Amino acid sequence: MTQPTDIRREHLPAALSLAASGVPALPLRAGKVPFGNCRRCADNACGGRPNMKTPGPCTCPAPCHGWAAATTDPEVINSPRWARAWRDAAAVAYHPGGAGLTVVDLDNADALAWARASLPATRAVPTTRGEHWLYQGAMQSANAVRPGVDIKSTMAYTRWLGPGTGTITALPDAVRALVVKAPAPARSTAVTVPALAGGGECPHRTPTYLDRGIAMAVQRITEAREAVHTTVYRTFLAVLSTHGRCGCLTEAHTARLFTAAQARGESARHCADAWTNARTTLGL
Fold first, then answer.
1. Crossing angle between the packed helical segments 251-263 and 207-222, to the nearest 10 degrees
2. What percent of the chain stands above pLDDT 90?
3. pTM above the 0.85 mark?
């Protein structure tokens, strides 16, 4: 990997040099951010998202989809479709995971001191406030794995700041362990709601009425095409406002709602939090 004399004026040659070395490159705007999706791909209409492994089934007229735009294809990098991006580019970035690399981004003196005491020596690239340590091997990316330390590898990008010095060594288990979190305690999805005041019979305890309500809620979540977080919360709120005070909801009902939400990309934790927030809002 070679470094141009003046990267500020030589973004395209730098990207082509990276690509020739097998390192997927892309242009960055000012502020170290990627170029936004083109009109054809606005709001991910083409099906691609920055957190997906592929940019979607489309032929983009510009470098779309964040890190997923990074490529080693010189014809794409040097194409008229990317020409405007290179004219406006403020920096060159690359996708470490796409080259089988992991970058440990050490953002301050304390982080550097920790790395020197805890990690094996490898290639180091100076940054504005610290260093990038490059290891051979890809892994999950994660930010703030410890104070001043980010991991850039798969499904992430980082700025190209030069080849650095030293020999790249194998990715150590100590770096992989930084993104391994202890499993969160199991959270019950059971719902406990107050009984009817006065102990009367539940007016909703008819299978047809309740099942229809749950089915409609599941359909609403399943058909959400945007603002999924908000849709899930509002749906939970609607279900609880109708059925939450009489004790007719069971674990089977909440499981159906949670399953629908998780199928749309929500985590189990977010489902539990949304359910709790909805109950709190209703005073349950």
1. 20
2. 36
3. no
